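S1.2 Input.
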Amino acid sequence: MELDVVELSRLQFAMTAMYHFLFVPLTLGLSILVAIMETVYVMTNRLIWRQMTKFWGTLFGINFVLGVATGITMEFQFGMNWSYYSHYVGDVFGAPLAVEGLMAFFLEATFVGLFFFGWDKLSKVGHLTVTWLVAIGSNFSALWILIANGWMQNPVGAQFNPLSMRMEMTSFYDVVFNEVAQAKFVHTVSAGYVTAAVFVLGVSAWYLLKGRHTELARRSIAVAASFGLASALSVVVLGDESGYSVTHSQKMKLAAIEAMWETEPAPASFTAFGFPDQEARETHYALHIPYAMGLIGTRSLTDEIPGIAELVKDAETRIRSGIIAYDALKEIRKDPNHAPADATALFEQHGKDLGFAYLLKRYVDDPREATEADIAKAAEDTVPTVWPLFWAFRIMVGLGFAFIGVMAYFFYVASFKKMTFPRPALYLAVIMIPAPWVAAELGWFVAEYGRQPWTVDGVLPTALSVSHLSITQVAMTLAGFIALYSVLFLIEMGLMIKYIRKGPYLDVPETAAVSGSAPSASRSAPAAGLQPAE
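S1.3 Output.
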């Protein structure tokens, strides 16, 4: 890969986005789990549930702070590294981000402080309300961010204005209820719930292995296993729905994920295993499951899923149509107030393919001067590299089913075996802690890498979206981000491990009773956000 400004800018955004998403899923899931625990406390008045809420809430707070800081940095990059993208689609993309800041981020920022410092200043119901508002705010943030991202995958509710030379919103409703955005939201949020459930399960299992805080650990496992099982099942179901939406909106991405080089007779088979060879356009040692891809991708046994070869030909057709739109646009721009009627009519007919003409700018300055060879190369550019998408998707799916198995086992033992967990199972729960993050990052890799070469699918190529920066400028900021984020990551991990090792403060009489010892002065002392119970 040639490291030009485009590739360096992509690498920088990918690094910051993937780093940011180390914190997002745990924030989404822990906020709900903490709210559930506090709800049990308010309903039962059992103080150990208050202690659980405080302990897991402390870990949520550490994670929350780092997530906010890294998310803000990402938004700055749209102006710094992707200025033409911001200019071209800012009227559409900026709207959900603005709503996210006003509706969700302010909600979180307002009530997260009350959650930590309001234990002795609010009533039980009042503090519980605050906790649920923090959880709702966290999930609302994800909703609006994913609406913005979903529009990049499936740009509905907007059209290009040849007078302003920008995309303009035509229907806020269509943007919000975009099928890709809604499918991404429920799938991503459910994955966050699984992440938090696996995290709580693993940390609690570690406590049981050490023989520490066993009552808190057992109750936490019971909550995490039931919540995690429901979430893991929903991830698979909602992931299937997300794949179905890709069938309509991003056919090339689906074909690349499946390494479907040619269109197969309906219903298409699912390739469970194989080694894609992009140069030879075949998958070696492929293991097929008949009918499966047809049922998943089309919900029928009669509809075909187009292969890569057919989609490349479609891209050539759309590039030629885009050249007509580009020529008409040039005529309109000569005198925007008195545009020729024939040019306007041509643009209305072919304008939806203008983005495909922009793919030619990698080879010629003026798409109208492109040769047949240039058109063929631009059409081939619409095919992302297949093998990383193929394997990333399958590892992600495999981990998803593994989460179902682990959660189902712990739910069964917690419900019917009096929580007598074998030590190998507890070790497995500890080892599984990083797995949800691996699955989440792979999921985002599939979503974003599979969209290439587009920033906005079918509208704006990535190569045209960048700012006018030098390679040195981008490389220096990339190095700075890597250094800063590495330090922040070490701080985050150090704080999380510190508070996990320290464990919950024995600040309630019930906890001291069930653990068989009175709370010591050092263990019952107040600490950040943890005040002794009356």
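S1.4 Remarks. Residues 214-249 form the longest helix (36 residues).
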